[in-house]
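The records we work with from here on pair a chain with its fold. Here is one such record, which you should read through line by line:
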Amino acid sequence: MEDQLAALVDNGEKLSGIALAWAPKLAGALLVLVLGLWIVKLFIKGLKKMLSKRKIDPSLLSFIASFLGALLRVLVVISVMGMAGIQMTSFIALLGAAGLAMGMALSGTLQNFAGGVIILIFRPFNVGDYIQAQGHAGIVREITIFTTHLNTVDNKVIILPNGPLATNDLVNYTKEETCRIDWTFGIAYGDKLDDFKRALNDFIKEDQRIFTEPEPFIGLTELADSSVNLTVRVWAKTSDYWNIFFEMNEKVYTRFADYGLHIPFPQMDIHLHQAQEDRK
């Protein structure tokens, strides 16, 4: 009986020693856990506020906040478990292997996801912009995490993956509020350049949508086989581009004759020479 009591006392002393040895670690780990989770909460709150000011898409904002929040909380828990003396080497190795396997299996999807994040954060284009990319052109109708949807001018829907869209060349025709409109018109040889300039200046002045600054430009471009080609350049609002472009073409076609100008057809001059035999 005395031996059993002595063994119990001895075991109690060992447990007390272990508890005393672990108490500071546990206290420190709990303190780090509480502080870590509190800091993560403040960080996510500040991140949401910052991204909201930059007008980030709400769906992307929610995803980024929840993803980073979960990741940071896991890191805090792993750090706390390590401080408490729990061996995390095998657990971390397992997580790394699982992450590598998932990354290899979803490489294309992850590339598109990363591209979607870049597009939604830096906004190289917005919904409603007219863009050209990857051999396609159209109006942006929807930007999702993985794809961007375009509507062509003939109302076809084109779905582009965000990965290549974020890393390759892209032309945004409506990013700027103003743009330059170019034409090349041909007149016949013999027509007067002054008449051409007078006609185009009249057409330009009639259209209030065309800016006076920068000043419109008219210049001779090429002495072609059948025509004298001249370039006309004006500036206007991007939203007025096509209306101005088509209306100017119509004015040139219907009113050139009023200024003594002619739109030439392709032509070729053939000269015939009659050979005469020498007569003796």
